[in-house]
């Protein structure tokens, strides 16, 4: 149930002395954070957020850190981001924060043809991916190397396979992609981390704002999985063209990984539904998997094979051969880190370098162990379409 809307409105007013709020509406609680939408006497919109319990304080603290990091670099972003207006505390000492809102409409990928949408989305993502990684580091936000990202995807596949409800042909397709050397030869960048229809705001066909950031240094392909998995084929192609124009340093296999991630998300959604024991959701998830299998049988799924990298055939193994049954996929992360370092160094030497900066530290190819697992989040079924 949470706090009454009137109590949240009073806390919001305390966070912004002088503001005269005329209307408010309580929104759905997300990730343990209660939300109240407000409008002031000038017609401007705001959103007040307050942890429902003390164990969710870290969620709001993380969001505030992301907002500060983005606002410090807003001049480099071609879209609007939220700003923090003020904070307050309730009688239990929990901190709440008031943010600006962004005007815009949710996108419907099924109706968005090439043009303004694909260009502005590509420009927005490219701008995020070209931010200095120190934006993330200085805010204490997560950073992952290529081997760690691969390891997490192998673990994700292992959980999907353990359900026994995914066709062997799909599991083999995903396993073969995760074994591909060249597919995972990339430089992690700053990413949005939570792209979905809820996170992108449009004015007509133009992307004018973004919300729901899970800011981190990771694989830029994660941000493209949404459009690759749900957009019209022509819109996806146009987005890629504009993205490469805005970010020439992008690796050649970005779209293949994005397609892989979008497919794995369907499997992870099935895992979540089974854990919840919701028969209606389980049936929906199984139907999505069956649709994917039918696309595979008809040959309409995107090719996950890696493109050639600077004309050089892949010669160095990224991961040890996965010889265990598919229900028990495993990986030696330390071996991966050593081999991917050698692989990337060799290719950059022969190809003249992928980027101007290529120290091991900037590539994220350290041998220092870094926690890979992130706090579990509930999948959003709307993000799958």
Produce the secondary structure layout.
Elements lengths: L4 H11 L5 E10 L2 E8 L4 E7 L5 H15 L12 E6 L5 E6 L15 H14 L4 H5 L7 H17 L5 H12 L9 E3 L8 E4 L2 E5 L5 E3 L2 H10 L2 H14 L7 H23 L2 H20 L34 H19 L8 H4 L22
Antiparallel strand pairs: 1-2, 2-3, 3-5, 4-5, 6-9, 7-8
Helix pairs in contact: 3-8, 5-6, 5-9, 5-11, 7-9, 9-10
Question: Which features would summarize this protein structure in a list?
Answer:
single chain; 385 residues; alpha+beta; Phosphorylase Kinase, domain 1; Aminoglycoside 3'-phosphotransferase, Chain: A, domain 2; 2 domains; five-stranded antiparallel sheet; two-stranded antiparallel sheet; globular
Oligomerization status of the protein chains: single chain
Topology as H/E string? HEEEHEEHHHHEEEEHHHHHH
Could you give the distance between the termini?
Answer: 30 Å
- Report the uncertain regions: 309-331, 345-377
What's the arrangement of strands in the largest beta sheet?
Answer: 1-2-3-5-4
The radius of gyration computed from the alpha-carbon positions, rounded to a whole number of angstroms, is 22 Å
Under CATH, the homologous superfamily of the largest domain reads Aminoglycoside phosphotransferase (APH), C-terminal lobe
- Helix content, binned percent: 40-55%
**Average pLDDT figure:** 85
Number of domains: 2
Beta content comes to: 5-15%
Q: How many strand segments?
A: 9
Q: Helix count?
A: 12
CATH topology value of the largest domain: Aminoglycoside 3'-phosphotransferase, Chain: A, domain 2
For the largest beta-sheet, the strand count, sense and barrel status come to: 5 strands, antiparallel
> Overall 3D geometry?
globular
Instruction: Please name the CATH architecture of the largest domain.
Output: Alpha-Beta Complex
CATH C-level category of the largest domain:
Alpha Beta
The helix-and-strand class reads alpha+beta
């Amino acid at each position: 149930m949470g706090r009454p809307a009137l109590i949240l409105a009073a806390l919001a007013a305390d966070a912004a002395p002088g503001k005269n709020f005329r209307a408010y509406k309580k929104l759905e609680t997300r990730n343990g954070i209660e939300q109240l939408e407000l409008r002031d006497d000038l017609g401007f919109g705001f959103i007040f957020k307050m942890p429902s319990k003390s164990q969710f304080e870290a969620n709001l603290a993380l969001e505030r850190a992301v907002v500060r990091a983005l606002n410090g670099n807003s001049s480099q972003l071609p879209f609007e981001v939220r700003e923090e207006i003020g904070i307050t505390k309730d009688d239990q000492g929990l901190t709440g924060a008031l943010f600006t809102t962004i005007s815009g409409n949710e996108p419907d990928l099924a109706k968005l043809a090439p043009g303004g949408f694909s260009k502005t989305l590509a420009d927005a993502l490219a701008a995020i991916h070209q931010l200095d990684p120190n934006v993330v580091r200085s805010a204490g936000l997560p950073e992952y190397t290529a081997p760690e990202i691969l390891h997490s995807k192998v673990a994700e596949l292992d959980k999907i396979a353990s359900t026994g409800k995914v066709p062997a042909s799909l599991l083999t397709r995903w396993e073969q992609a995760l074994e591909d050397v060249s597919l995972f030869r990339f430089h992690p960048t700053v990413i949005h981390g939570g792209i979905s229809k809820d996170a992108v705001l449009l004015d007509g066909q133009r992307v004018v704002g973004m919300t729901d950031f899970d800011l981190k240094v990771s694989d830029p392909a994660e941000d493209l999985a949404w459009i690759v998995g749900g957009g019209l084929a022509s819109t996806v192609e146009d987005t890629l063209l504009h993205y490469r124009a805005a970010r020439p340093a992008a690796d050649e296999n970005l779209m293949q990984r994005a397609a892989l991630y979008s497919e794995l998300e369907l499997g992870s959604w099935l895992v979540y539904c089974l854990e919840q024991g919701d028969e209606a959701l389980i049936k929906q998830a199984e139907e999505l998997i069956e649709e994917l299998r039918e696309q595979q049988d008809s040959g309409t799924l995107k090719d996950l094979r890696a493109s050639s990298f600077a004309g050089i055939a892949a010669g160095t193994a990224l991961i040890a051969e996965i010889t265990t049954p598919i229900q028990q996929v495993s990986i030696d992360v330390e071996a991966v880190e050593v081999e991917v370092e050698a692989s990337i160094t060799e290719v950059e030497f022969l190809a003249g370098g992928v980027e101007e900066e290529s120290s091991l530290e900037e590539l994220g190819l350290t041998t220092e162990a870094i926690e890979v697992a992130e706090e579990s989040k509930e999948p959003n079924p709307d993000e799958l379409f």
